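Re: Re: token formats

Sure, here are both.
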Amino acid sequence: MNLSRAVGYIIRNEQRRTERRQETVQESTIRRRIRNEADNRRRPKRVCIRNDVEEHNCGTMSEQCGFCGAVYWKEEKNTAHKEINPFAQSYLQMHRLVQEHPTTSVKMVFLEDKNLDMRRYNASTLCTEVAAIFVSDNGEPPANRDICVYPVGNTCQSISPLNQCCDPMTYPLLFPRGECSWNTGMEHVEERRTAKRTRVTQLQYYAYRLSQRNGFSILHNSGKLFQQYIVDAYVKTVGSRLHFLRQNQKDLRIELYRELLDALECRAHNENIRTGKLIILPSSFQGSPRHMQQNYQDAMAMVRKFGKPDLFLTFTCNPSWSEILNSMEGVQRPEDRPDIIVRVFNMKLKELLEDICKHGIFGTVLAYIYVIEFQKRGLPHAHILLTLDSESKIRTKDDIDKFVSAELPDPCTDLRLFQIVTKCMVHGPCGTININSPCMRDGQCCKSFPKQFKDDTEENVNGYPIYRRRTTEPVQVGKYSIDNRWVVPYNPWLLKKFKAHINVEVCASVKSVKYLYKYVYKGHDADSVKIQKEGALDHDEILNFVECRYVSAPEAMWRLNEFNLSHKSHTVVRLAVHLPQQQPIVYQDGQEAQAIERAALRKTTLTSWFELNKNDPSAHNISYSDIPQYYVFDKSTTNWKKRQRGGQNVIGRLPVVSILDSERYYLRMLLLRKSGAISFDDILTINGLRCITFQQACQEYGLLRGDQQWHDALN
């Protein structure tokens, strides 16, 4: 008899009670009675689950239902649970405390404020989604939590989220035997162990736990509880990583080389001076504002080299893909398996990029970037920007019509495409037809639907084309009547192949470039929320709201799998721009002298470029920003070495410098234009005249004539 499906169905019907039960971390022994339904054997059997049902009775199940055989058993009340779960007594103790001290009922209120960035603060449109919401700085998950247990007596004891008993005590249904979870001392098995890696990381443990294997899995059949477990695992993993950084960087500081020297000279007079500023979070933390800003600047470096992007695509996961539906077990729905959703979408995204970049459905692609988003919609989607070569550029309205359509196809000539368009590419409807649509803002559609009818495409109107939308007879889609005004632009070939929402837009002008790049690098999802007691009056409608980060189960699963959140076709090398003896130095408090000695021996990418120009005449005609295309910076020796291969996919980028930091700003202007410099003095020397400041050097070089520098700074 296949009992695993019966257990899966029991868990499925127990979800709502289970989620409430997990909040109080209590459990009662569950005994089941499955009733026969002779009137309809094809329907799944109804399950009655109570706290004190003594019989477990499975009636006859036909093969049509996916079951075979029958079973009947009976056991003593609570006996099995007490025997297999070491935390059973703890649950009973917690249950008793909850009965004696009832919990306070509260509600979480979400603020919808049109003044907030609705691309990040948009409300969730899925009631089936489980997400974590936490107060954060720059999207950092909390390292510690208020997890409490009550041993014998009424005393409260806090436990760390790193405690191996945390998971089995929080999720008793997922750990029925009370199995211990990850701990800091967990070691790799012999065949996986290496000299550098002997212990299992928290991320590796959860990636292992969340992987699907042969046989029945309670975890993967627990519905919303599975989503909660995924979100919890991600928040704990990243929170622990940040906690490690805080603990190991508490004495780590950063200062400029010259200022550190001055501080050491002053220390003899004042021992209380503490140099530098404290650094905690590295810019490599994915999703932080600094990380997104760096990615945005990298993308703009690609624009500087290849020009504006030509196409903007939004590719959204379709939960009805056969690869997803065929992986469902029993009565599962796609939202129950975020692990399958993200894996299938990741494979589809790779296939889409292969069709675009290798097979050239739009022509030859010079460069591309993509960013993955979730945005409280439960499904991952990718924003993709493509830059085409000169022969493939989309210049005329005929070129636009060749690749992009914003019309309903004729069902008589292409019924399959018509069905996909009406299912995946119709906006809303919204407006007066449906005023409750999520896109409505102050009575208007934020996407400007419905569009106007248009007999011919216009290439460029305020940076964007206006697509052809000819007047046609409306068609019935569901309960709404729609026409070409409601169609989201698409590419017919891509739509027929991937059967998903794929919005394709043409970038007609450079005016739209920065908006598009800032759109895709806008940052993590957020909410403005407050906690309020049920029945309590609160007259402060805004001030009590706090900014929180929002992490859904698909996003958590994507990050736990370490899939790319963003990707570029080219490697961008970030180059240093600093004044003489003002390179930043990272050091530990109390080790300033040693840091200065190390800095004196190690070169930056800029000072090493000076050395390269002294020793290699072939580098004299290469500007500083282009040097990474021909040379590799060896961090161990801090020297530039000639590339053997692969330079065509590398771009150098100088950091953005504020005009308020005037000397660095003007040094950057010179570095973008002068090649072959062997020192700072060489950069300051223009036509044989040694200038005092870099601003004067720019003046002599002719870079400050007129207002062009201010236009460049603003652009």
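Second one below.
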Amino acid sequence: MTKPFSCSIRTGFSLVETSAAAVIMIIVGAATVATLSPLSGNALEKAESENLAKLNCMVQAYNIETGLWPDEQLHALYEADYTAEPENATPYGGYYRWDADAKRVYNPNLPDGALRLETPFEVE
């Protein structure tokens, strides 16, 4: 007598298939992180550059208008309605400061390895 039609039913994936899928996902994830990580640093550097340029322009306008330079914390810019906040936050944390000797705004909170932008004024 012959057995009636029988088929084996697979219930899930094998260990090899699951491991292969996990390895592929890890490789794709690592490639994505490696691609996107530098973009974050570039965005911070661009924001830093734009903020410094704007603040230095505001300081120049303030100096032309009042004949004075701002205080170290740049509160004078806020009091003269040049900025919306009394303290100007940096993309790296902390606040911008005024260097009275160099006559420029700077970021005292830059992390090691960050691009240090110099935007000096020509003081007359």
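Residues 47-106 form one domain. The chain has a mean pLDDT of 85.
- S.
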